[in-house]
Amino acid sequence: MARLWRRWRKEVSRRMTIMVIPHGIARPRQISFSLPFLALLFISWTALTGWAGFLASERFDYWRARVSSHYLKLKLAYMTQQLNESRAMLDEVKSLETELRTLMGLGSRDAIIQTDSTPPRSSPYQALGGPSTADARALEQMLQAPRHEISFEEIGREVQALRAEAELRIASVQRLSEKISTERQIYNATPNLWPVAGYLTSHYGMRLHPIDGFRESHQGLDIAGPAGSPIRSAADGEVKLAGWAGGYGNVVVIDHGMGYSTRYGHNRLLLVKKGDAVKRGQTIALMGQTGKATGPHCHYEVWYNGRAVNPYRFLKKHTS
Prior knowledge:
The protein is α+β, with helices and mostly antiparallel strands. The protein has six helices and 14 strands. Helix 2 runs parallel beside helix 5 (about 150-190). The chain is rod-shaped. The protein starts with a helix and ends in a 5-residue tail after the last helix. The relative contact order is 0.08.
């Protein structure tokens, strides 16, 4: 045992020397360390490194938690914004759908298509409705619930449900809007207004020509009246011709779209020119007897898809 003790003391008393040999003429330097000091230095360095690593790990977890919390807040704010936008979109679609259905409820096709626009939002038609008792309870729960109790899954499901309902309502609104728009286009293009106040002197169809005396197909209506009477456009449209055209005399031709066009002949004075946009009821000329005419009158024709049709079928319910 004594021998082992002496040997251990001998080993412990050993020293290690580190020699530093600089370049040039400087003298070499050496540093000696005992083995226990080196062991203590190693243990201290290991402990210090472990402690620093532990602190760094704690700080990393702290900042990671902060970043995660910030990310969750941003995500919650984004999803809340999406939810609010979806609700606003759905409310707007509901309002528009109500207005369109109000129009559809006017009863007659003419009442709907002759209305220039949907009822204003201040209309009495909009002064109805309100939240239900269930809506009030849901609002109270939202106000009382802590922010963290609202999960992303719940918000996501509600956003999806709102958007699904909005898509269905948008499709419904689009169908209603397209139907009304088409009906309005047809109405605006249909020549259903008497072009002038007067009396019929010649109907549409076969007749004896008042000047030439032979039997012919009369492609319009002759409406007589005092010279200078205002001639009005029978529908909205664009002037395609305003000038002299043989037997028509001074004529105005208007393209109304949807396949319709009208012609107004024998005018004394033209008040529009080619390319002008005109509205239903707008004065476009003054009655005369230019061209082949026995007296002041308006020769009025309606053309549909490239052929003359009886104007009177559009005028039966629209007397001047």
